[in-house]
Every structure is written in C-alpha cells, then in structure tokens.
Design goal:
Layout: H1 2-28, H2 38-51, H3 57-71, E1 76-77, E2 84-85, H4 86-92, H5 94-121, H6 126-140, H7 143-157, H8 178-211, H9 214-221, H10 226-252, H11 258-263, H12 269-279, H13 282-310, H14 312-318
Antiparallel strand pairs: 1-2
Length: 319
C-alpha cells in the first residue's frame, strides 16, 4: 500500500509539473498590458525587470520555480491587487469558496443518499420512476442553467434571497453571519443539483444490486425484516463505492466553481481565476492553475486510497 501511495504521489507531482510548464509558456507569450498611470508604469516595469520578465522563457521559468521552492513565492499580482503576493491574493479568496461549496455538500449528501435509498427500495415503482427522471434531468442540464432559474424564480420573482452574494461589508464584516448565509443559499442550491443527482444515481445502482445478493436472502431467512437487513447489511456494502465519491467532493470543494461564482458574484478563487485571465495577471493565473490542478489530482489519489481503507478486501486482493 505504501509503495502504491508513493508511486501515485510521484505521478501526481510529475503531472502537476507538466501542466505548470505548459500553462506558464502559454500565459507568458501573451502580450503584457502596462498601466496608463506614469508612476505605476515605472514601478511595474522596474519590478518586471528585477523578476526577469524580459528574459527568455526558460530563464523566466527557472526563476519562477526557484522562487517557489526556496521562498514559497508564486510571484506578484499586478492588476487584481497591485504589488500583493499572488499566494496571498489566492488565500484571501479561499474562505468564501470553501463556505459556499461546503454548505452545498452538507445539503447534497443526505438528500442524494436518501433519494438513492428510496429509489432502490421502491425499485420499478412510481417513486423510483419519478426520482430516476429527476436524476436524468439534473445530470443533463448544466449547473449555470439552474443558477439562472434559481435567480429568476427565488430571487427576482419571489424575493426570498438576494440575487448575488453579499459583500463582506454588507454582511456585518463576517462570513458567518445570518445575512451572509442567506445570500449564499441561491449559489448553494445551484451547486447542489448535480451533486444530489450523482449521489442518488450511485446509491441506487449499488443498493439495487446489493438487495438482490445471496447474503441478503440469507439475512432474511435468519429472521431479519427487510428494513433491518437493508440497514445492517445492504446499505453498509453499498456505501463502498459511494463514500469515496463523497470524500472526493470534500477535497474538491477548495476548487470551487468558476461559473457559479461568477454568476452569483462570490468573491472566491473561481471568480479570481476568471479575473486573472481577463486582466492577464500572469502570476495570479499561475497560482490559481497550480492550485486547481493540485486539488484535482489530490482528489483522485484520495479516492483510490480510500477504497483500500473502506473495504479491506481491496487491499487483500492485491496480495
């Protein structure tokens, strides 16, 4: 197991390096825009010269990597936050992204698993048909469509929530105030539809197969009721492929959603990524790319490793 983990970590770091290199070259060949203000222009050009921005690409990349490994320096923001370290700009945007996605996950997991269990237990009945139809609808339609529907019906027509997430100053300077939470609900709902559908589909598929297995028949013949056999045996085994999906979702909440954050004006890393591209803020774009890539690769490793811890038979099967 340790050998497998080390191998996966090495492959993850190699993949991260390749993606970093490609993105660095692509973003640096774009033309730089110099501010119109004379004083800012002189400061930025002097800083660019000191950082080696005017040197060949390979030299620039070597300087960039040296700064990361020796000083944890991912460069400087020039347009999003003038002269502020790019890593600091990213960290400042993490909390709203984590909160919105964490609220969505807390809401999605019990609802998705509950609907999946209900659909499996009521297989081929009207409850199963209704839930399966809704799941197909939620999976097929992109999340930004739900975002616009939530904004139109719940925010604009009903007036239940603000159309966009409050700024920190408008919510008592606290991300944990009731006003801030209320303004996040539309974004949470828009993010939840796809997560609920995915969990429901996986849970129904696994539980349906488990309910027809031989050991379930044995449990019923030993005197257990259908509900007891389902909760004690079937549900436990059906969760083996479902739990890694939940774990991966918890890891990936740091990445956020660029589209949803843009629609609801969530001041998180997703919106920051879009701004860094539009403004050609090289270093902010790179630190976001590294962050997104690392989170995605880490989620994949966590899922694979979690299978072995959740079900010891997977580890024993390797032997």
């Amino acid at each position: 197991m340790a050998k497998y983990v080390l191998k996966r970590i090495f492959l993850m770091l190699f993949t991260l390096f390749v993606i970093m290199t490609i993105c660095f070259v692509l973003i640096r060949i774009l033309p730089r825009e110099v501010p119109q203000d004379k004083a800012q222009q002189e400061i930025i050009e002097a800083r660019w010269e000191a950082l080696g921005y005017n040197k060949p690409l390979l030299v620039q990349y070597a300087i960039y990597l040296k700064g990361i490994f020796t000083k944890w320096d991912f460069g400087t923001s020039w347009y999003v936050s003038l002269m502020k370290p790019a890593w600091t700009v990213l960290v400042e945007r993490l909390l709203p992204t984590i909160l919105v996605n964490l609220y969505a996950l807390i809401f999605s997991v019990p609802v998705g698993i509950g609907l999946g269990v209900l659909a499996a237990v009521k297989k081929n009945k009207w409850q199963d048909h209704v839930i399966s139809t809704l799941v197909m609808l939620f999976v097929s339609v992109p999340s930004y469509v739900y975002a616009f529907l939530v904004q139109y019906f719940l925010c604009f027509k009903a007036g239940l929530f603000p159309i966009t997430v409050h700024a920190l100053a408008d919510a008592g300077n606290s991300w944990f105030s009731w006003e801030m939470f209320r303004s996040m609900i539309p974004a949470v709902l828009a993010l939840s539809f796809a997560e609920i559908a995915g969990l429901c589909r996986f849970t129904r598929a696994e539980l349906t197969e488990t309910l027809t297995s031989d050991y379930m028949l044995l449990a019923r013949t030993k005197g257990l009721t259908r509900a007891q056999a389902t909760t004690r045996h079937a549900l436990k085994n059906a969760m083996v492929p479902v739990l890694p999906m939940i774990i991966a979702s918890f890891v990936s909440i740091l990445g956020g959603s660029m589209i949803i954050e843009q629609i609801f004006s969530v001041g998180g890393v997703g919106q920051l990524y879009v701004r860094s591209i539009n403004l050609r803020d090289y270093d902010v774009f790179m630190v976001n790319t590294v962050f997104y890539t690392f989170i995605g690769l880490l989620a994949g490793i966590v899922v694979d490793i979690s299978y072995g811890f959740i079900d010891p038979r997977i580890r024993m099967g390797e032997r």
